[in-house]
């Protein structure tokens, strides 16, 4: 395996292991609903790479799209992270209204 291949493999692994994985003691891999549910139940705090959101942003009114863009940009301009929608401020999973 060459240097470029090693770098790509390392980046790929890094994206599959998050602070949420670390908190739960989970091996690298895709996130599951059970993992998110457990992290919320354990009141995993928000950080620079994890943001719990109650609702999806609504169409442009009151600058909500701007807030959505800022959230995405903040994650993209650092080391990445997770925006998880459908979780109330008290960490209760409430789901998302798709209507």
Textual characterization of the structure:
The protein is mainly alpha-helical. The protein has four helices and two strands; from the N terminus they run H-H-H-E-H-E. It has helices at residues 3-15, 19-24, 33-41, 64-76, and strands at residues 50-53, 82-85. It has a two-stranded parallel ribbon with strand order 1-2. The protein is globular and about 40 Å long.
Helix and strand layout, with pairings?
Layout lengths: L2 H13 L3 H6 L8 H9 L8 E4 L10 H13 L5 E4 L14
Parallel strand pairs: 1-2
Number of helices: 4
Got a strand count? 2
The whole-number mean of residue pLDDT values reads 80
Q: What is the strand arrangement across the widest sheet?
A: 1-2
The residue fraction in helices comes out at 40-55%
Overall morphology: globular
Q: List the uncertain runs.
A: 1-14
Sheet of most strands:
2 strands, parallel
> What is the terminal-to-terminal distance?
48 Å
Total domain modules = 1
Radius of gyration, CA atoms, in whole angstroms: 16 Å
SSE succession: HHHEHE
Class from secondary-structure proportions: mainly alpha
